[in-house]
Amino acid sequence: MIKICGLREMEEIEAVNRLEPDFVGFVFAPSSARYISPQKAEELRKKLRPGIRSVGVFRDSTPEEIEYVTELCHVDLVQLHGREGDDIIRRIQKKFRVIRGLAIERESDIRLAEKSPADYILLDHGAGGTGESFDWSLLQSCRRPFFLAGGLGPDNVAQAIRETGAAAVDASSLLETAGRKDPRKMEAFVREARTCRRKD
Question: Rounded to whole angstroms, how far apart are CA atoms 7 and 27?
Fold first, then answer.
């Protein structure tokens, strides 16, 4: 599966409608350079082609804050990237499927990720939107399907899929030029990911 994260403009929605990734992400973390208001995100979400699932991305938000935002923007899934505990995940799961983002620095982090009650786990560098990767060899022992994120772009996504066996890939910063999503990079990323999938 393919996820393109950090959408903020109508031109980006038009591009993903042509490319048809499985997921797109709207970042609701105010500290992020890719922050979008829930009202603007809802305008864009309504323009998505049917079948493309929208993901609301949060970092260290309270359940009440998440509920407020998701009432304004009717996303399909919630992604958590902060210090949210399992109790918060279970509470949110009463309404949404949850993607849990987890930083991977050592093999013990893999074991913790495998135990998460979230519907999906997303494994990355932990820096969040910096384009930094991490040691993919750590993922060889992961016994649970996962999203791979962190430093993925058109030039390395196929290699990443082959080396890690990721069930899904998630990209943002390396699909940008001068801080804005670049339709050519987005197209190349989706093409490379799908080419690798077909070969496998």
Answer: 8
Strand partners, 56: 26, 78
Averaged pLDDT of the chain:
92
CA–CA–CA angle 16, 17, 22 (5° rounding) = 65
The candidate with the shortest Cα–Cα distance to 125, out of 153, 147, 103, 100, is: 103
pTM above 0.90, yes or no: yes
In this predicted structure, the answer to whether residue 166 has a pLDDT above a threshold of 50 is yes
Per-residue CA distances from 53 to 62, 74, 180 (Å): 23, 11, 21
Strands (E), 6-82: 23-27, 53-58, 77-80
Phi-psi region of 65 (alpha: psi -120 to 50; beta: other; left: phi over 0): alpha
- Please name the residues in contact with 78: beta carbons below 8 A apart, sequence gap of 6 or more: 55, 56, 58, 66, 70, 92, 96, 97, 98, 99
Buried b (16+ CB within 10 A) or exposed e, 1-40: bbbbbbbbeeebbebbeebebebbbbbbbeebebbbebeb
Give the confidence band of 199 by pLDDT, cuts at 50, 70, 90: very low
* Reported confidence tier of residue 135, pLDDT bands at 50, 70, 90: confident
Catalytic residues: 5, 124
